[in-house]
Amino acid sequence: MIIMKRLILASASPRREHLLRQIGLRFEIMPSSVNEEIASSELPIEAVMRLAMAKANDVYTKVDGARTVMAADTIVVKNSSILGKPENEDEAFNMLKFLQGGWHEVYSGIAVLDSECELEINDFEVTSVKMTSMDDETIRKYIASGEPLDKAGSYAIQGRGAVFVERINGCYYNVVGLPIFKLFRMLKQCGITVF
Q1: Residue 89 belongs to what domain range?
Q2: Is 69 part of a structural domain of the chain?
């Protein structure tokens, strides 16, 4: 009897699900219940790696049998200020006002736990993003679209927010929320491939 190893995404993010389906992975979705608060003393890299591993561990311990669990956490950082998802429209406005007209960084932590190979892999990706200048009316119209309200930094590079991004240095998919190239290399160590 062949026992199939379960591949599980520890996230409710539709963007992460879409990216993984786009490359042909077959997986289950099981969101974690980890508190995503970041301590003021934490560096961005430490925070995203810690949260990604905590999410992966949370789901990994709830499932028995052969399994690989993958998780990620993404934040936006400018001038040492960490921006997560906005709690409301006013916070989204303030974030976009803060980001407009300059560079910021997008950090993603990724974690993969595998029961067969007994692997715990934790890594991160950083991408620099240049955002154009925007007037208040444009920002408010973008917020009214609803798109910014569940995104780190209050914008979606894969959606309407793309019109505000002048250029990026680094991995595009990291800005979407999941650095595919780095995750693919991690999954290969667990015997999982899309080909």
Answers
A1: 6-189
A2: yes
Of the candidates 64, 73, 90, 136, the residue annotated as catalytic is 73
Domain CATH for 168: 3.90.950.10
Total of domains in the chain? 1
Task: Examine residue 125 and state whether it is found in any structural domain, yes or no.
Answer: yes
- Residue 104 inside a domain? The answer is yes
pTM for the whole structure: 0.92
Q: What token pair was written down for 123?
A: 């890594």
The confidence score (pLDDT) of residue 1 equals 42
Determine what percent of the chain is predicted with pLDDT higher than 70: 98
Active-site residue flag, 73: yes
Q: 48: which residues sit within 8 A by CB, 6+ positions away?
A: 73, 74, 75, 107, 108, 109, 124
Exposed/middle/buried for residue 137 (C-beta within 10 Å: 0-12, 13-18, 19+): exposed
In tens, the pLDDT along 160-194 reads 999 999 999 999 999 999 999 999 999 999 988 88
Residue 195 lies in a domain: no
Tell me which residue of 132, 27, 131, 23 sits closest to 71, measured CA to CA.
27
* Bridge partners for 105 per DSSP: 77, 128
For 112, the 3-state DSSP assignment is strand
